[in-house]
């Protein structure tokens, strides 16, 4: 969608007017849970219709992607990893400021109340407001799910999906970079972080493959990077208006640069054999066509069914022997 000046709205409108518009409409009407299917159709349409791209945003996106992926090899050795990301953002932002850039930009960033937050030992002021516990159960989204029980079930499934994502990220980093991890530690950390998020009105804390890969791309190697990132976001928020004109095409290019190799060549999926091949590809396809929660459920079903079949087959062989 960053290849279009109007972003996602322009892409969806173009798809609706195309030959596959009826297919997308039918999918939304008959399979409302298959949100991923519409996204896949939009992606395919954008890739196979380059003449529909907006010239300037598309050019900026492609140039930013190539620069971030290749420039690091030519940077002076004394520059820290990730310098190419900063340069890319700076140049794109200056270009947007000095020209009538037609694509989407970050836009206005909410200002911070100078009196908000609380003091720690009277020395450090943390600009975070702690909510009254009475508001914790005030969830207007309950109406969308029908009941609090249904909401909690969906939230629990999504939490499980999120933890699987964290396991995948951590396992990959351990295999490729030798960074050890602990499942109980990660689970406890995510739980405490989400509890803190509830009391401060934040969105739930979760793991992100794209953010993790971007962090690795710029050279982070420890948990200290998380603390630095969090503190930077908190204390530099009053000055983040400098990012207001930053083109979204540039930011999307940075994320794409970090994940494109894994997307184009998912080696774990490709190398899977036997039952693992069926479960992994079935889960991946179901997730892409529906949602992470439904894809997770499909993965569980496939694992149980295939495990049961495999177990009964071994039992029959033992009886025969």
N-end to C-end Cα span: 60 Å
Inertia-based shape:
globular
Give the % helix.
Answer: 55-70%
Structural class given helices, strands, pairing? mainly alpha
Average pLDDT number:
82
How many DSSP E strands? 2
Give the strand content. under 5%
Any idea what the radius of gyration is?
A: 23 Å
Features:
mainly alpha; two-stranded antiparallel sheet; 321 residues
Task: Provide the fold topology.
Layout: H1 7-16, H2 21-30, H3 35-48, H4 55-70, H5 83-98, E1 118-120, E2 124-126, H6 142-145, H7 148-177, H8 183-200, H9 209-217, H10 224-235, H11 248-264, H12 267-271, H13 274-289, H14 292-320
Antiparallel strand pairs: 1-2
Helix pairs in contact: 4-5, 4-11, 7-14, 9-11, 13-14
Structure commentary:
It is a single chain. The chain has helices spanning 7-16, 21-30, 35-48, 55-70, 83-98, 142-145, 148-177, 183-200, 209-217, 224-235, 248-264, 267-271, 274-289, 292-320; strands at 118-120, 124-126. The protein is mainly alpha-helical. Strands 1-2 form a two-stranded antiparallel ribbon. β1 and β2 form a beta hairpin. The longest helix is centred in the middle third of the chain and has 30 residues, at 148-177. It is globular, with a radius of gyration of 23 Å. The N and C termini lie far apart (60 Å).
